[in-house]
Amino acid sequence: MNVNNIVEKLESIAELIRFFNFKFDVIDDCELTKNEIKTLMQLKFRGRQSLSYYSEKIGLKKGSFTSLTDKLEEKGLIKKSYIEHDKRKKIIIPTQKGIELTDKFYNSFVNHLSIKISKLSDSDLVLMESAINILSKIDLS
């Protein structure tokens, strides 16, 4: 298979990638923007990282991301803290309320995804997992 064929096949995956822009239901009367939810989900998977790390992951400029984190902090979902050995860098940490809400969003997404992939055969699920493992080895930086 040549690179052009690979590119064409990757383009066909675009719909699957858009699937990960899953519209989360409003939970506990807590309305959050898509970027706020993305930030909470990144916190769930990436742990204590700097604001600049997350702003890059979410795709926002630092100023916009700072505003977003201020709103999450006002809602009691995160707290900001300086890195112990470097007072120039701030990290964000989910609060207990943030963890609980994120878990609800995550479980909602997992349930939605489970319904979608339950239509695949066991052999297709194995192939899907293998493909994901291979794709995760590609360094996109």
Strand order of the largest sheet: 1-3-2
Strand content: 5-15%
Distance between the termini: 24 Å
Q: Nearest-angstrom radius of gyration? A: 18 Å
Q: List the uncertain runs.
A: none
Structural category = alpha+beta
Please provide the ordered H/E string of secondary-structure elements: HHHEHHEEHH
- Based on Cα principal axes, name the global outline: globular
Helix percentage? 55-70%
Number of strands: 3
Query: What is the mean predicted local confidence, pLDDT?
Result: 82
**Biggest sheet overview:** 3 strands, antiparallel
Helical element count? 7
What is the compact description of this entry?
By secondary structure, the protein is α+β, with helices and mostly antiparallel strands. The protein has seven helices and three strands, in the order H-H-H-E-H-H-E-E-H-H. The chain has a three-stranded antiparallel beta sheet with strand order 1-3-2.
